[in-house]
Amino acid sequence: MVVIVLAALGPASYIKGAEQGKHLFILSGQSNMARLELNESFTPTVIKEFGKDNVIVVKDAKGGQPIRRWYKKWKPAIAASDAAGQPSISDIRRTRSRTPDSVEKTSRASKRAQRRSKNRRPVSRANGDLYNRLMKEVNTAIEGTKIGTVTFVWMQGEADSKEHGQVYAASLKGLKSQLSEDLGRTDVNFVIGRLSDYCLDNTRFSHWTMVRKAQVELRMPTHVQYGWIQTTSTQDWA
Question: 213 vs 77, 158, 208, CA distance in Å?
Fold first, then answer.
């Protein structure tokens, strides 16, 4: 993976950065990134490439999470029915299903859930909460250190491929801007592990191809700091 990361961006930025400080690699995302064992692959490879004293690697990921838990200004697309002040299909279905028996069952289930929740610690799912957790680790790792290059490796998209694919491209751009601003840099390299070819017919995940397209479109000639890694099972690199 790391070899492809370096190839996707080219060596120029890393050579220049080496003269100015350490190389910072920030890895985040959901399931596949969460399962990545840094010490088995990524970290040894960048150490071999740049030297142990020249790299800092930080990873924080969590499976099954949408991009809004990283991008603080995330907003959903406005459905046509919502914009017109009309109820959505899901609202209509919920209304039709609320018979007296179903309401009573729902009430009982709600009370049981409330009792169980009293014994659980509250879980924050506000926009950007996982990003804040990540940046806390990053800031601790780089405190007092001169940084030459910053590369953000992102593997995420499954959760958003179920819905909200319309705003995924804007969310990715916003996430990069957010990270760049917080680090005080305009040269952050952004590498995306693209969604695989698992659901090209969009039957199980209705926005799968929409998210795949958004991930690739960021890597345009005008976006020289973006790179993406093909992760399809067929390895079609076209």
Answer: 17, 13, 9
pLDDT digit string, tens, across residues 217-228: 776 444 546 566
Measured CA to CA, the distance from residue 37 to residue 51 in angstroms comes to 19
Instruction: Map out the domains of the chain as residue ranges.
Output: 2-74+128-229, 80-117
pTM of the predicted model over 0.90: no
Is the separation of the CB atoms in 81 and 87 below 8 Å?
yes
Closest CA to 224 of 9, 12, 4, 23: 9
In the DSSP assignment, the letter for residue 235 is -
- pLDDT, tens digit, for every residue of 108-160? 656 665 665 555 544 457 899 999 999 999 999 999 999 999 999 999 989 99
Q: Where are the alpha helices (DSSP H) in 118-233?
A: 129-142, 168-183, 208-217
**What distance in Å separates the CA atoms of residue 63 and residue 34, rounded to the nearest whole number?**
6
Contact 168, 210 (CB under 8 A): yes
Q: Which residues pair with 228 in a beta bridge?
A: 192
Are 27 and 193 within 8 A, CB to CB? no
Q: How many alpha carbons fall within 13 Å on the CB side of residue 70?
A: 31
- Into which CATH architecture does domain 2-74+128-229 fall? 3-Layer(aba) Sandwich (3.40)
The share of the chain scoring above pLDDT 90, in percent, equals 45
Percent of the chain with pLDDT over 70: 64
Query: What is the rounded distance in angstroms from the CA atom of residue 160 to the CA atom of residue 124?
Result: 19
